[in-house]
């Protein structure tokens, strides 16, 4: 086995066990100052080599934790979630941090919440910006049953320490705060897809329960060294069961949030959101921050919106590019900008690219796999960094392994795949077809989550087996 495929044990750094509610600062609406941003990738990414640089697994103590369920990368640091890790009780969860040292990915820390409890699912969602990472524990019963929480860790030298536990300003039963997380500089966004108020827009009335699982997104900013909630975001067309906050992404002063069960039949940008003629078609909402605070600036829909497509089950943003996945989309098209109205491949999935200019946001590309197949769930995960997009398809079934293998052998159910697209002269084209290195395993779910940053592409395979535990999981790193 290559020395780059590492499985190192490290000690844990524990912080004082204090309940989230005891640590939470009051909600103070944002006055509009920027939270800062981080480099989202150069305008032109380095050429993708198509090289596997590491297959990473959890320490022996974390077997069976669905390692790879969530991945995030920033610079030379990779974060991997294992939400079913059981060392703090069944399903309490854990997060692994790897760093690139001398050409190899090495385990730097294995983190658990200081007040870990069974079924919290800590690590179901992860995000990192520089030396700060955030991990969602969306089933933690903090303030209410399954209300959810998110934990913030910071690195000093080689040591990670828990510095904050975040909860919603209006925790409610089954709100699932922490279902999605994102961070950019000094701003964190947390999705709570089960939140149920009927508020509309920014900082509305939080305490009604009139729109069950309509969902919400909460924004936190670091001020004076402490994280404090500064905004409460709802859709412009809030409705029951829309699940806003299922996905979230942020870059600087622009945030995109997905409501993949939203039901209008609008298409494109800023269409008619007032009907429910395409239930489950999905929508994404763009919010931007200026001196006055946050405001919704765009309502995004698929160009071929149809019921149950699940548009926005995944979202990503880098500067002026947004990518939205729709893992339930049904067209049989392949490649870029094909016929999106040929519903010949049920739940094959798609991804949609939107570009910002002086005129606002406009559709820029419609992405499909080179080997579109029914049930592939292409778009289950998406990530954009500069001129590169990665799309995961955890249901894809070829027996290929590595990079650019035979994509047409559909003999291994839910083995999964990931697809790399590159932008050249304002046009997108598929650059690589990625598969797990482990041969022959069904239900590896490779591509359930993906992350891109600079030259690196990370892909989670949360169902990949190990010799002792059949569902231990793995994460792969390519460049």
Strand order of the largest sheet: 22-23-25-26-24
Mean pLDDT: 90
CATH architecture: 7 Propeller
CATH level-4 homologous superfamily: Integrin alpha, N-terminal
The tally of structural domains comes to 1
Order of helices and strands: HEEEEEEEEEEEEEEEEEEEEEEEEEEEEE
Query: Structural class, from secondary structure content?
Result: mainly beta
Strand element count: 29
Tell me, what's the shape?
globular
| CA-based gyration radius | 20 Å
Can you describe this structure in just a few lines?
This protein has 479 residues and is an all-beta fold. 1% of the residues lie in helices and 43% in strands. It has a single domain (30-478), classed as 7 Propeller (Methylamine Dehydrogenase, Chain H).
How would you describe what is shown here?
With 479 residues, the protein is an all-beta fold. It has one domain: Integrin alpha, N-terminal (Methylamine Dehydrogenase, Chain H, 7 Propeller), CATH 2.130.10. Helices cover 1% and strands 43% of the residues. The protein contains one helix and 29 strands. Strand 14 and strand 15 form a beta hairpin. It is globular. It starts with 19 loop residues before the first helix and ends with a strand.
Give me the secondary-structure topology.
Blueprint: H1 20-23, E1 52-56, E2 70-74, E3 77-82, E4 94-101, E5 104-111, E6 122-129, E7 132-137, E8 149-156, E9 159-166, E10 177-184, E11 187-192, E12 216-223, E13 226-233, E14 244-251, E15 254-259, E16 283-290, E17 293-300, E18 311-318, E19 321-326, E20 350-357, E21 360-367, E22 378-385, E23 388-393, E24 402-403, E25 417-424, E26 427-435, E27 446-453, E28 456-461, E29 474-478
Antiparallel strand pairs: 1-29, 2-3, 3-4, 4-5, 6-7, 7-8, 8-9, 10-11, 11-12, 12-13, 14-15, 15-16, 16-17, 18-19, 19-20, 20-21, 22-23, 23-25, 24-26, 25-26, 27-28, 28-29
